[in-house]
Amino acid sequence: MTDQEGFPGAADAPVPRILGNTESLAATDPGSAGALWRLAEPGRQLDANLIRLPPRGSIDTHAEPDLDVLLLVVAGDGTLGATDGPHPVEPGSLVWLPHGSVRNVTAGESGLTYVTVHRRRPGMQIQGRPRP
């Protein structure tokens, strides 16, 4: 059986790819913080990031007005703050952050590493000044 048998019409279709391993990415340099990985493939419809917060680090209270975000905790622990109170998160916690929701994130004593996924934002466009 050839690789394409069983996938009729797929000759010109994009091919799924394994991009990495969140467990091994999260294990790199425990002292690092911020985005450890970003989805950067051209033509994508999604954005995704692997984020590490240092112990007791936080993301300030904010709302994302336009995009729903899916958050998956891969290492460490922490708290998701929301208008209905604090929610503990740990590896395996899968959180939906609906657009417009007000939230913050605080890492626990061992830090917090999580993946976020959301629809890709459209690129910025330069527009001319409106005419009077």
| Assembly state (oligomeric) | single chain
CATH architecture: Sandwich
Kindly report the average pLDDT value: 86
Radius of gyration: 19 Å
In CATH, what is the homologous superfamily?
Jelly Rolls
**Major beta sheet, specifics?**
7 strands, antiparallel
What is the number of helical segments per DSSP (H or I, 4+ residues)?
1
Q: How would you classify the helix and strand content by structural class? A: mainly beta
Total beta strands: 7
**What is the level 1 CATH name?**
Mainly Beta
How much helix is in the residues? under 10%
Poorly predicted regions are none
- Pattern of helices and strands: HEEEEEEE
Q: For the terminal residues, how far apart are their CA atoms?
A: 67 Å
**What does the overall shape look like?**
globular
CATH topology: Jelly Rolls
Report the β-strand fraction as a percent range. Answer: over 45%
Number of domains: 1
Secondary structure: elements and pairs:
Blueprint: H1 22-27, E1 34-38, E2 46-53, E3 58-63, E4 69-82, E5 85-89, E6 94-97, E7 102-119
Antiparallel strand pairs: 1-2, 2-7, 3-7, 4-5, 4-6, 4-7
Organism: Streptomyces qaidamensis
InterPro entries: RmlC-like_jellyroll (IPR014710), RmlC_Cupin_sf (IPR011051)
Protein name: AraC-type arabinose-binding/dimerisation domain-containing protein
Short description:
A hairpin with a 7-residue loop joins strand 1 and strand 2. This protein is mainly β. Strands 1, 2, 3, 4, 5, 6 and 7 form a seven-stranded antiparallel sheet that branches.
